[in-house]
Amino acid sequence: MSVHAIVLAAGRSSRMGGPNKLMALFSDRPLIRQTVERALAAHTAGIIVVTGHQAERIEAALSGLNVRFAHNPDFASGLSSSLKAGVSALPVDAAAALIVLGDMPGVTTDDLNRVIDAFTADSTLPIVRATHNGKRGNPVLLPRSVFPVISLLQGDTGARHLIENERENVIDVEIGVGASVDVDTRDAMARAGGVLQET
Known about the structure:
This protein is α/β, with parallel strands linked by helices. The chain is built from seven helices and nine strands, in the order βββαβαβαβαββααβα. Helix content is 29%, strand content 24%.
């Protein structure tokens, strides 16, 4: 079953007060490139990167990588618009979408594979959610059966709404602290080891 990754990279990084967090450097690589490279190395059939804010800059940071871009002109309206853009760009044979946030530096290729493998090993085609110490986190894998519901989402609503409505068929996969570490603020970025680019 083909699992495609949708990497969400459209946000404005508003809590950073200026710099684009996805361009922060981790080991001299932009965070978004590190995230996409890890997704490419996982058991994925393809990668779609959803762009919005500073789209050209994001695309330049991913130069040379085998990805497809889906631009979300409504990125300012919230997360749901980026989910819709990503799912709309999936090939017709996609069995599931692994929703990867661009700003989670602690999620490794092995973590992504554990989520994907839990899906492919289960004949019920469940939603799969990464957790840390039993608390819900990211990434989340959505089977094709819930794609139609994504078109109904509005505003800054993500996959959590879908999961709450499909509780009877959700698998939680413990991947460790990476599932709960994002870098929305300058302090969080510094703790994660990223170096913001002020321009």
